Amino acid sequence: MKKRSELFFSLILVPIDFLMMIVGFVLAYWVRAHLYTIPIANPVGGYHYLKVILIVIPSWIVIFALTGLYNLQSTRTRLQDFGKIVVAVASGTMLLVLIDYFSDKTIFPSKSIAIYGLFFSIVLVTFGRLIVRFVQRFLFRYRIGMHSLLLIGDRVQIKELRSKINLKKIGYRLINTTSVYRGISWLKTINKHHHIDEIIQLDFKNEEQQLEIINYAVNHHISYKFVPGVTSLYKSMIIMSKLGNMPMVELTHTQLEGWGRIVKRIVDLVTSLLGLVILSPVFLIIAVIIKITDSGPAFYKHLRISRAGKKIKIYKFRTMQLKYCTGVGYSGKDDQQILSQLGSDKLVKEFEKEQKVKNDPRVTRFGRFLRKTSLDELPQLINALKGEISLVGPRAVTETELKRYGQKAGSFLAIKPGITGLWQVSGRSDINYDQRVKLDVYYVENWSLLLDIKILFKTFIMIIKGGDGY
Q1: Structurally, how many domains does the chain consist of?
Q2: What is the separation, in whole angstroms, between the first and last Cα of the chain?
């Protein structure tokens, strides 16, 4: 799992690259305009030149991203970085030259400016990235952003890896090595005292023990890598990576890492903020009706589990009569206790199986309307704005429900829950709980931005049609 500092340093590279390329091409313009005695062939004002550069450079950032310069891979060498910078800057310069060629108005006062801009940009972008790398490695001295590493496997291979790779230099703090796996209790003890961030396995032949290590890593959000050659497990969740010059296979908990996580958070932040502003009159109307029809608070807060097991309070419009609301601050009782008091064992059994009741006698008349139209979920935009949940994700569950996910509980908790999700648009109230679990786990392991867009679109269609919630 990526550290927050890695996400920060990857994100900060975007404005730094942007600034360095602007400086590079401005410097190229200044050098040609002021240090040469030869007259300029095409007099172009500095304002027009700068305006075009500012318009084109965002597309340059896309080229940088496509060449992999924003990938969260701390083990990439400076030479590899430099090669990618040269390719990316040269591609952007070619784009600028093509625009100049086909444009009615000349961009470059002199054709030599493109060459100077290419040279200065490569130098300055490289310099900017070296500064970022220096700061990142300086922070490693204070263990900021470092990964606590556990090495398991053949003693000879461990010795070879340590002799070839300066682990500390690339952000690893070696907490333990072992050639003999000592069981799950030993692994738990190491994690308790050192908080393992990553496990690297080198040549391990016992598949049962390997599966035990992988399950522990997944369930505790620990990155797992192994050297190619051992049995392939979790095939849909592996990516090839390198540690120094040694090839490895890394086990991922979800596709939602690095830039995907950043983009998803930005979308959540902007959309939830806009939603709260635009829908504020709807919030007010619903809150007033709840107050009129059943005195008590309009909002209901319920304890749920978020990413990595963090406990959060989910906001909803209250749809039940106040005396039947569950949890601390309300009746103090759970759903089974309240349903038992209502004298219906059938409803208790239905809730235990599905974690909801179709014809729930506790729900008010207006509450049924809110549930059917999913309007009771609107206050969760507050949770999304706070960063506790996402717009799209698996269902936010209680601690009791989490047990039903079994060994997949760790995968389920790899990302934040969502206001809507795959199971909600795949039948919602018409599918059983076990199917919901499978759909949630599928979403986590197969996340993509396109899948999020599809789910949001289907959610919108479902709300327009009237929904099928209860």
Answers
A1: 3
A2: 37
Residues 67, 43: one domain?
yes
Give Cα 436 distance to the centre of its chain: 22
Where a domain ends, among 207, 222, 251? 251
Pick 119 or 309 by higher pLDDT: 119
- pTM of the complete model beyond 0.85: no
Contact 147, 3 (CB under 8 A): yes
> Residue 165 belongs to a domain with what CATH number?
3.40.50.720
Domain end (from 140, 155, 176): 140
Neighbours of 151 (CB within 10 A): 22
Question: Considering the chain, what is the average pLDDT of its residues?
Answer: 82
DSSP element (H, E) containing 350: helix 345-354
CA 250 to chain centre: 17
Q: Is residue 2 classed as helix, strand or coil in its secondary structure?
A: coil
Q: What is the pLDDT of residues 49-104, one digit of tens each?
A: 788 788 888 888 888 888 888 876 555 667 778 888 988 898 888 888 887 777 77
Phi, psi of 196 (to 5 degrees): -65, 130
In 3-state terms, what secondary structure has residue 236? helix
User: Do residues 104 and 218 share a domain?
Assistant: no
